[in-house]
Design goal:
The complex is a heterodimer of chains A (245) and B (165).
Chain A: H1 5-12, H2 18-30, H3 32-52, H4 62-69, H5 85-88, H6 93-99, H7 106-113, E1 122-125, E2 128-131, H8 133-141, E3 153-160, E4 166-172, E5 178-185, E6 188-196, H9 215-224, H10 232-240
Antiparallel strand pairs in A: 1-2, 3-4, 4-5, 5-6
Helix pairs in contact in A: 1-3, 2-3, 4-6
Chain B: H1 3-24, H2 28-44, H3 55-78, H4 99-110, H5 113-124, H6 129-136, H7 140-158
Helix pairs in contact in B: 1-2, 1-3, 1-5, 2-3, 3-6, 4-7, 5-6, 5-7, 6-7
Chain lengths: 245, 165
């Protein structure tokens, strides 16, 4: 069986259905030429990705955050940034940008960073958002399969990602309105998405329950998930391995 | 989508949008200009984002359109002075270990616009064919043929060796 260049590329790009993928993989075992063609396409993809990957961890230039913040006000209630409305009056965007040039999503997570030394749930390192404090601890230790009624942080689902890490969704209960998705990477739990959960009484038609993930988070999960969510046993095993895959 | 939800979604996309812009235009400052223009346009046109459309694809499309607008503007300004894109090919002073990186950026810059954006979305940003075709507003067959041609051209420029950095 021969495979066209288009098929080889589609295989490397993850675009083949299961049957075609299996056919390519079976053929590669005794067809060295096909294996070479696949490897060549894969090498190009890897080379390009490796080259541009460092951009992801560069600090976000303040002018981009300024551009985002310019339309930020007025902010409706029920949103992330309205969590501590009184605190917002004390600093302007310009000052904020000057103080923390490497911020990403500063306007959104500012309330969590500014809660006071040692008690932040989100930290910034080289432009990346990382879980810290009680959030970091909960992501590492808490099991979704063993919810604790009094816990400040609720873990939603745990799942393996397409980038070979474990990811977990969470809700910060004490703020009653912030949900997110974090993935375990070498530097810690990296926040991939944050979103507002409607407060009880303000839930729209598409948010049936307070514990339901905001659309943006659910979409991020859809984009990142590889396979199924972890069941109780798999989740426990993943925790025992320190969330390493 | 409520404004704050949109701001939040764009905020977490910023690193990826910057990477995409960097693949389109080599100069990091120009790349951030594109992202900035895109953020401003997105917020100004938030009402055009359909409820069921993903913010990710929408933002990639806005960055890409900002890039096309910029190229056109540059071409107009430069028409009588220098050939279009000459500025993108000036030698880079980096040497030695950066040679491989330089080769990749050179090669990307030499790809025709249509191939460059397709390669950037699929090979670098990891979008599916369907998502990338949607961003570029072309049929999937058009997208896959651009990717195929872009890949061949890159492989020719970068050499046959399959090393990975």
């Amino acid at each position: 069986m021969t495979f066209s260049d288009e098929t080889v590329m589609a295989y490397v790009d993850g675009e083949l259905d299961e049957a075609d993928r299996a056919a390519v993989e079976a053929a590669m075992r005794d067809n060295a030429d096909l294996a070479r063609r696949v490897e060549r396409q894969r090498a190009l993809r890897t080379r390009l990705q490796d080259h541009f990957k460092p951009v992801l961890s560069e600090p976000i230039p303040p002018r981009l955050l300024d551009a985002l913040a310019a339309r930020g006000a007025p902010r409706p209630s029920g949103s992330i940034v309205a969590l501590r409305p009184r605190a917002r009056a004390h600093w302007s965007w310009r000052e904020w940008g000057a103080m923390a040039a490497s911020l990403v999503a500063g306007a959104l997570i500012a309330p969590f960073i500014w809660r006071g030394a040692g008690s932040s749930e989100v930290e910034l390192q080289q432009g990346q958002l990382l879980a810290a404090g009680t959030l970091g601890t909960a992501l590492t230790r808490q099991l979704a399969s063993e919810p604790s009624a009094g816990a400040a942080i609720q873990i939603g689902i745990s799942f393996p990602s397409r980038t070979d890490s474990y990811c977990r969704t969470f809700v910060l209960r004490q703020h009653d309105s912030l949900a997110g998705l974090a993935c375990h990477e070498s530097e810690g739990w990296r926040i991939m998405a944050l979103g507002a959960v409607a407060r009880p009484g303000t839930a729209g038609p598409y948010r049936q329950a307070a514990s339901e993930m905001p659309g943006g988070i659910a979409h991020a999960v859809d984009e990142m998930i590889a396979g199924q969510t972890l069941d109780a046993a798999a989740e426990r095993a993943a925790r025992a391995r320190g969330w390493q895959r | 989508m409520p404004p704050d939800d949109l701001i939040g979604e764009i905020a977490v996309l910023l690193p990826r949008l910057r990477r995409f812009a960097r693949a389109l235009t080599r100069d990091p400052h120009d790349a951030d200009d594109l992202v900035q223009v895109a953020v401003e346009r997105a917020l100004a046109r938030a009402n055009q984002l359909l409820a069921d459309a993903g913010v990710t694809g929408w933002m990639y499309a806005i960055v890409r359109n900002a890039w096309i607008d910029e190229r056109r503007a540059r071409a107009r300004r430069a028409r009588v002075l220098v050939p279009e894109e000459l500025g993108e090919h000036v030698a880079d002073p980096r040497q030695g270990s950066a040679a491989d990186a330089l080769a990749i950026e050179d090669a990307m810059q030499r790809l025709p616009q249509e191939q460059r954006e397709a390669v950037a979305l699929v090979l670098i940003e990891g979008l599916s064919y369907k998502e990338a075709a949607h961003v570029l507003d072309v049929p999937i067959g058009t997208l896959t043929s651009r990717i195929a041609r872009g890949r061949s051209a890159l492989q020719e420029m970068l050499g046959e060796d399959s090393r990975t950095p």
